[in-house]
Amino acid sequence: MSGQQHPAAEREPSTQVYKGTRPGGRSARVRAAVLAAAAEELLEHGYDGFSMPRVAERAGVALTTVHRRWGTKARLIADIFADATAVAVPEPQGDTLEEDLRTLAGDVAASLENPMFVTLLRSAFVLPDEELDALRQAFWVSRYAVANSVARRAIDRGELPEGTDGWAVVERVHAPIWMRLLITGLPVDGAFIDELVRDALVLARRET
């Protein structure tokens, strides 16, 4: 189970996502205020009604600051999702692969049961195709990086062989949760997460 990368990692997004550092002090406070204001703006007005001037006003910053850091509303919206996901589903730091997968599954389920997160997610579905593609790539590239980090630690502990594709392991836990909570409406409980983690571990070890 190695070698081939997730498609999102193979190319840069066609719309460049804000990639600035996350410094402390005033710059961090400005960034946090703008992202919070942008999230509120997106929830209230959707993509078509999204207004950069209103975001600046809500955040209490100059419009030039918003344009200088993000440039377009597509970049700003992409950063909302990247930031929200990093907070809701951070990289796990468990002592075993099983623990990491279980933590990821619980965090993904919790985020997709959060009404505000889901509303933000669904708001993005109305983006123009080229901008939705950029957002999709930016979102999954960050998730792919987390998956690879989880696999790297498992490899270092001797739980998986060198070259294991982290995303191929993590996807088996992520995908059914997304399917249930966003499409079928079926529940995601502890027993279901246990089953997903167990199956992912069995398949990872069998394929390697």
Automatic annotation (TrEMBL):
Flavoprotein as UniProt keyword: no
Key word Lipid metabolism present: no
PROSITE patterns: HTH_TETR_1, HTH_TETR_2
SUPFAM superfamilies (alphabetical): Homeodomain-like, Tetracyclin repressor-like, C-terminal domain
DNA-binding region: 51-70
HTH tetR-type domain sequence ranges: 28-88
Region (Disordered), start-end ranges: 1-24
Keywords: DNA-binding, Transcription, Transcription regulation
Membrane-spanning residues: none
Gene3D superfamilies referenced in this protein's UniProt entry, alphabetically: Homeodomain-like, Tetracycline Repressor, domain 2
Coiled coil: none
PANTHER family named in the record: HTH-TYPE TRANSCRIPTIONAL REGULATOR RUTR, TETR-FAMILY TRANSCRIPTIONAL REGULATOR
Record's protein name: TetR/AcrR family transcriptional regulator
Phylogenetic classification of the source organism: Bacteria, Bacillati, Actinomycetota, Thermoleophilia, Solirubrobacterales
